[in-house]
């Protein structure tokens, strides 16, 4: 990013936009309990209408596929066993899955009702078209921020039209509607009311969000809670550490929370990393055992859960690789027609497993710039690029190979015109902005539960092309929104 010495946009307008963002909850909490606005672009990105429509068609099919894979427990156990041996955290998840689903004679029964709230992240590659980066099946947040970014740009267009049109690529572009906040809440509320009805509507539908201790990305979460409250759902927040002593079983596998009562939906915004199950106070001989058993306890009850343990396994990078590598005809196992399978395959980027042959090929013959090396981690900081890949591959023990995969590196279209990024109240000119498109879906027990046939809005994160880490929270990313061009 190159900062211009003269102001690109009036400081009055920047302050106006920043205050709008804070006022509408588009913020991170600081350590001293103040709020800092999320970084954002001053005007939206353009996407061709037919590309966008293609993604709207294919994303619910991906969710249908992932749901059915996640409920195919024998397949999960057999196909991911090597990865689980190579990645200790996924080894923990697989052991939990085994306790719930692995043995027909075991004492545990998985009564949980799967609520798949998923964000599928795409990049529109210059050469290959729109391709999946990853599936997010746990802690797939920031849907509320996605909608708010679209609303912020609508505010800019109305209040400061000259500035808006100065920085937009195409004056004739039409904003893509984004109801991410309302539709995610609608789907969650539908699941909550379904579970509540199963128990005779004895109490108000109740939603439990499992959160990380002292996290700063709370306003996005609270926006969803406020919307759920509007839809008649009570909301509460707890950490795994709190839940360890506060959960109990009621009649007919009802999940009960101390001082609250019955719970209808459990939504995990934690649980995708070891740290979420670690408690220094427990001083355990086996790390993270007690708090991970809390997650197991939840799934033994008749309660809607996102993400289930099996959903988290089904959205892993290894499963993405397996689905990418298998022929379309095999998707019929999970209820997809050949046409549906072809649509899904059209957006899956090439992936390769790590083994001695792959390493030999990569070292001698591969174009290093065409690949990215990924492990199973969620969020930023888990990718290796360029010449660093060879170094990393050479450092890996053979026992670690199955935790990693090579994936075709995507080079999305750079925005035709420069744009202004706003971070901490400061404006910066970006000449090479590229965008990642996350589409949300909501399915309950395998059926779409939004008013848009399972689709639930989008999240756009943009970053300079020169930056590898594009997270809003941890990288150089900024919130953005979409306009459609023909």
Shape, please? globular
Specify the helix fraction band.
25-40%
End-to-end CA span: 30 Å
Averaged pLDDT, please?
A: 94
Number of domains: 2
What structural class should be given to the helix and strand makeup?
alpha+beta
Largest pleated sheet: 10 strands, mixed
Number of strands: 25
The helix tally amounts to 16
Q: Rounded to an integer, what's the Rg over CA atoms?
A: 22 Å
Provide the low-confidence segments as ranges: 1-5
- Roughly what fraction of the amino acids lie in strands? 15-25%
Structure description:
With 486 residues, the protein is of the alpha+beta class. The protein folds into two domains: 11-349 and 410-485, no CATH class; 350-409, Dna Ligase, domain 1. Helices cover 36% and strands 24% of the residues. It is built from 16 helices and 25 strands. Strands 5, 6, 8, 9, 13, 14, 21, 22, 23 and 24 form a ten-stranded mixed beta sheet that branches. Helix 6 (143-159) packs across helix 7 (161-167), helix 6 (143-159) packs antiparallel against helix 8 (180-198) and helix 8 (180-198) crosses helix 9. The longest helix is centred in the N-terminal third of the chain and has 22 residues, at 49-70. The chain starts with 10 loop residues before the first helix and ends with a strand. The relative contact order is 0.21. Residues 206-314 form the Glutathione synthase substrate-binding domain. GO terms for molecular function: ATP binding; glutathione binding; glutathione synthase activity; metal ion binding. Belongs to the eukaryotic GSH synthase family.
